[in-house]
Design brief:
Helix content is 25%, strand content 19%. It is α/β, with parallel strands linked by helices. Helix 4 packs across helix 5 and helix 7 packs across helix 8. It starts with a helix and ends with a strand. About 10% of the residues have low confidence. The structure holds 2-acetamido-2-deoxy-beta-D-glucopyranose (2 copies). The site of one 2-acetamido-2-deoxy-beta-D-glucopyranose (NAG) has 5 residues, from helix 8. GO terms for molecular function: carboxylic ester hydrolase activity; cellulose binding.
Length: 368
């Protein structure tokens, strides 16, 4: 007769062997049996390239409001770039209705606080172990709400990420909800009215992981000067925030480059750990600059044996983006990915042919 305790020991032993999570290569895969702690039930998706590097990098790519892991996978260039440089991509998928990220609750704005940021950090740690990743190549990027989360992840998990690129977001902590709301919209911040000194913004970052004294990720901040969803002042305040963190003078860039990386984009370097790219005439959001991202992350020009370069023409179009600013007032038509409604919205509410206006929350609808 088998004693129960022996049987359960046997079963748990078997479990340890029977659970080598298999992630199929070269397609978007949902990871359902990772065993990580996932306090807010964030969707866990990955792209593992065919040409996986021996010690791969890890890139977290965070979608926008109304987006999903699937939408950001097909609408951004990271999977294509993963095949080229051998890194794995984590695409988290928001669990909230409207699929914005929770960048407002104390839980998400705190290291190991049990919010969305915590769930994503746990995915990163899992991927590092599973793929024997190079921890000096762990990066995060995102668009809009995903850019807000990018700043939050850089602030809450500074030990994990080496660099971060935010496309059209707000400073870390700017969307905080005074009443502790989860996944709350903050109009004061969105409209560019949350103004603070570099020191005050830096303290917001430091208080998300109190006592941390180690290195922090280097930051690249993109914003469109014609952004009517997250007003351009959020660019200036984000630059102030990270200048405060790194001890740079936000009013005196060390280098200013005009029409870099493209016409009407202006790149300001404030020190080795901070660059801002302000895009004149560009609305919400700035299109993902895949090749530039690879340079900032240190993949391009690196010795990581890249496979054959991506076939020209197969690169997925950069999205969710609209380089045409929304034409304010009635009668205008919002292009795909532009805002088309929400409280206080005075821009166009009609979407260009081929896209429809989809509500993310009371403050934000987008043409998709
Ligand atoms: C919005 O965020 C600001 C900081 O950016 C904060 O001071 C304010 O209390 C927040 N508003 C609400 C309604 O929570
Ligand atoms: C924000 O920064 C940009 C780029 O340096 C600058 O052109 C703009 O005047 C600044 N806006 C404010 C309100 O300081």
């Amino acid at each position: 007769m088998v004693r129960l305790s022996t049987l359960s020991a046997l079963l748990s032993g078997l479990g340890a062997f029977a659970n080598p999570v298999h992630v199929k290569r070269a397609s978007l895969q949902q990871i359902t049996n990772s065993g990580i702690s996932n306090p807010t039930n964030v969707g866990f998706y990955m792209y593992v390239p065919d040409k996986l590097a021996a010690k791969p990098g890890v890139v977290v790519a965070v979608h926008y409001c109304t987006g999903t892991a699937q939408a950001y996978y097909s609408g951004s260039p990271y999977a294509t770039l993963a095949e080229q440089y051998g890194f794995v991509v984590i695409y988290p998928s928001s669990p909230h209705s409207g699929t914005c990220w929770d960048v407002s609750s104390k839980a998400s704005l705190t290291h190991n606080g049990g919010g969305d940021s915590n769930a994503i950090a746990n995915m990163v740690k899992w991927a590092i172990t599973k793929y024997n990743a190079d921890t000096s190549k762990v990066f995060v990027t995102g668009t809009s709400s995903g850019a807000m989360m990018t700043n939050v992840l850089a602030a809450t998990y500074p030990e994990l990420f080496k660099a971060a690129i935010a496309y059209s977001g707000v400073p870390a902590g700017c969307f905080v909800s005074s009443s502790g709301g989860v996944d709350a919209w903050n109009s004061t911040c969105a409209q560019g009215n949350s103004i603070a000194s570099p020191e005050a913004w830096a303290n917001v970052v430091k208080n998300m992981d109190p006592g941390y004294t180690g290195a922090r990720p280097k930051m690249q901040i993109y914003h469109g000067a014609a952004d009517t969803t997250l007003l351009p002042n959020n660019y200036n305040e984000t630059i102030k925030q990270w200048s405060g963190v790194f001890g740079y003078n936000y009013q005196a860039p060390t280098t200013t480059e005009h029409n870099v990386p493209q016409t009407n984009y202006h790149r300001y370097t404030f020190g080795p750990n901070l660059q801002g790219i302000y895009a004149i005439g560009v609305g919400h959001s700035v299109p993902v600059q895949g090749a530039e991202d690879m340079k900032f992350f240190g993949f391009s020009g690196s010795s990581a044996t890249p496979s054959s370069p991506a076939t020209p023409g197969t690169t997925t179009p950069a999205a969710p983006a609209a380089s045409t600013p929304a034409s304010g007032g009635n009668g205008g038509v919002a292009q795909k990915y532009e805002q088309c409604g929400g409280i206080g919205w005075t821009g166009p509410t009609t979407c260009a042919a081929g896209s429809t206006c989809k509500k993310a929350n009371d403050w934000y609808s987008q043409c998709l």
